[in-house]
Amino acid sequence: MSNLLRPWLPSDAPIVLAAAAEPEMDRQFTTPVDSLAAAQDWIAMLEERRDQDTAYAFAVLDDGVPVGNMAVSQVERRHLSGWISYWMREEARGKGLATRACRAISEFAFTELGLFRLELAHRLDNPASCRVAVGAGFRREGVERAKLLYDGVRYDTETHARLVTDQV
Known about the structure:
Layout: E1 5-7, H1 13-20, H2 36-51, E2 56-62, E3 65-76, E4 81-88, H3 97-111, E5 117-123, H4 127-135, E6 139-150, E7 153-163
Parallel strand pairs: 4-5
Antiparallel strand pairs: 1-2, 2-3, 3-4, 5-7, 6-7
């Protein structure tokens, strides 16, 4: 796709495993990634979802090394919409990579997948994720109260959206 994004490869499993072990990163994975085999399964799941046209995930690269994930999932063909999600390893945060990758995957979703509307949300206590969303052209749409539950604590989220017609 570019020198910034590429599909995850089976050989990336050690990087995925290391990412999942970082603080609070386990929340970024739908299934536990606590072994090399689990990381390999996660990568295989991404390929299956791509084949099913339901989700497209890409490794975010920094000098050719995967340091994060950028995905458009919940691809919905009737309404031409999708859900953007992302995570970055600790050493890659604060470099603008996530914002550039979010812009790139948005363009992919609009041009290659033909989607019209992209959505994302972040916890209100995650201002860095908000900066990524706004920097990638996503407009704030509202707060969803007590939407997420982690370790017995409920969190509000802020929803953002970007339309193919938005001027970025």
